[in-house]
Give the backbone structure.
Amino acid sequence: MDSEKRSFLVLHGPNLNLLGNREVEIYGNLSLEELNGLLHTEAEKLGVIVECYQSNSEGDLLDRIHGAVGNYQGIIINPGAFSHYSIALRDALAGVDIPAVEVHLSNIYAREEFRHRSVIAPVVQGQICGFGPLSYYLALRALVNYCDR
Ligand code: DQA
């Protein structure tokens, strides 16, 4: 029964609503809707539920993280540019007792220097980047596996 399935929250940060049109040479042709569809299919295979949410607003993302307590077993987050400077997002993830994985479509370490630092990475279980949409699948698999332990 669905009510017995574990739920995972997928948070997409700023500008990820533009996927499919935005810098396609870096982020690919897949739209956010298509990416979320693939994640739902992957979740079904793993026997879990994913709920996906995108916001361009830091406050919305903070509210979603706070609201995840008691409702989700894990969080997958692509904080977009917030990765590089949002202490508020970092504090929110550190403040809730929910395992989380940071994902990026691109390899942030192979890009501009300002992207090399993530303020999120130290407060999550792990980070996966550079594999395009596969980064999200890998994060989901890792998180489900981590929560099974
Ligand atoms: C990104 C990488 C960030 O540096 C950038 O600001 C994004 C997307 C990625 O998925 O590769 O918006 O998080």
